[in-house]
């Protein structure tokens, strides 16, 4: 089945017949796949929020691609939910980074063997172990098979936030946004609620507007605990990051969202999606033009990936954090 996205041709892989598939010029196709978790997102958002946002953002990005790429066919695969470091509540599904890497490596190799040259992996889950696992798989397949397999989320992290999962500097100047509401807005808060009010309003619980703003740092301060002191917009050092993750895990054992979902609205969601999609389209255009090679499509944490995705380090990390099968 083909859908029109502006004048972009978007096709869902699972709806194609063998005859339609064989008619495709695979070297000119771009495969889209979202790899994000199924996890608890507050009391108000669907468990698939990250995947729905990743898919929605990718589709909106297509509308903003320059004319030179509009003759391509974009093939959308069903989303993949193998993800690490989910909120530790029933309903969240946890996978090791090695599982994410293996699934995406197998996918990339299969696509390359069938003649596809461009694979864009979308995501809206900010765990370093998750997006570095995606990057690792993309890097291995790109080098091994000579294709372009890229984590778009990682490119966005590098260009927009310097490695942070927060977006005050990117979205704080949008009309109707209170910049303070974006500080600590890392999960099921203003940004995610606003986007889903646009993408899938029927899936958002109507009482979201009554939810108070809460953040990890605010929760720590209420308990008289010192804050980690991480500079905004810059990735933390390794030991500060361990503490930040451990504090976040303690918070999310008790809570299911961090941010200000009550400040969200469909109008803000449209502005947020348009802003992020425009940045993504600019980066994807460079990737498809060949001016941004896969070797340069990494997040700021890429040089430290061993600490996050190596199986031995993952076990050590989990022991330090007290994580067993994804439940802290």
Strand order of the largest sheet: 1-2-4-3-5-6
CATH superfamily: Creatininase
CATH architecture: 3-Layer(aba) Sandwich
How many domains in all?
1
CATH fold node name: Rossmann fold
Beta-strand content bin: 5-15%
Biggest beta sheet attributes: 6 strands, mixed
Instruction: State the end-to-end distance.
Output: 42 Å
Integer-rounded radius of gyration: 19 Å
Low-confidence stretches: none
Which secondary-structure class do the elements indicate? Answer: alpha/beta
Average pLDDT: 91
User: So what's the CATH class?
Assistant: Alpha Beta
SSE order, one letter for each helix or strand: EEHEHEHEHEHHHHHHHHH
Please bin the fraction of helical residues: 40-55%
By DSSP (H or I, 4+ residues per run), the number of helices equals 13
Number of E-state strands:
6
């Amino acid at each position: 089945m083909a859908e029109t996205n502006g004048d972009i041709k978007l096709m869902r892989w699972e709806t194609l017949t063998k005859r339609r598939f064989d008619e495709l010029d695979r070297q000119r196709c771009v495969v889209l796949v979202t790899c994000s978790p199924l996890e608890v997102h507050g009391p108000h958002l669907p468990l698939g929020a990250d995947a729905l946002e990743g898919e929605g953002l990718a589709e909106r990005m297509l509308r903003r691609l320059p004319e030179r790429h509009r003759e391509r066919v974009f093939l959308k695969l069903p989303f993949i939910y193998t993800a690490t470091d989910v909120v530790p509540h029933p309903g969240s599904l946890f996978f090791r980074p090695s599982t994410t890497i293996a699934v995406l490596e197998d996918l990339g190799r299969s696509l390359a063997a069938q003649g596809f040259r461009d694979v864009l992996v979308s995501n809206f889950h900010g765990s370093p172990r998750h997006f570095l696992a995606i990057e690792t798989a993309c890097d291995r397949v790109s080098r091994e098979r000579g294709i372009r397999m890229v984590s778009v989320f990682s490119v966005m992290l590098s260009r927009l936030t310097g490695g942070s999962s927060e977006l005050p500097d990117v979205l704080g100047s949008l009309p109707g946004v209170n910049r303070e509401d974006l500080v600590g807005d890392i999960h099921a808060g203003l940004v995610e609620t606003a986007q889903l009010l646009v993408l899938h309003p029927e899936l958002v619980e109507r009482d979201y507007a009554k939810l108070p703003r809460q953040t990890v740092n605010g929760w720590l301060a209420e308990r008289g605990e010192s804050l980690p002191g991480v500079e905004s917009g810059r990735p933390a050092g390794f030991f500060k990051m361990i503490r930040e993750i451990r504090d976040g895990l303690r918070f999310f054992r008790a809570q299911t969202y961090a941010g200000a979902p009550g400040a969200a609205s469909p109008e803000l969601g449209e502005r947020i999606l348009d802003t992020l999609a425009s940045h993504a389209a600019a980066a994807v255009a460079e990737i498809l033009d060949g001016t941004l090679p896969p070797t340069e499509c990494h997040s700021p944490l890429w040089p430290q990936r061993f600490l996050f995705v190596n199986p031995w380090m993952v076990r050590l990390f989990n022991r330090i954090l007290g994580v067993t099968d994804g439940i802290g």
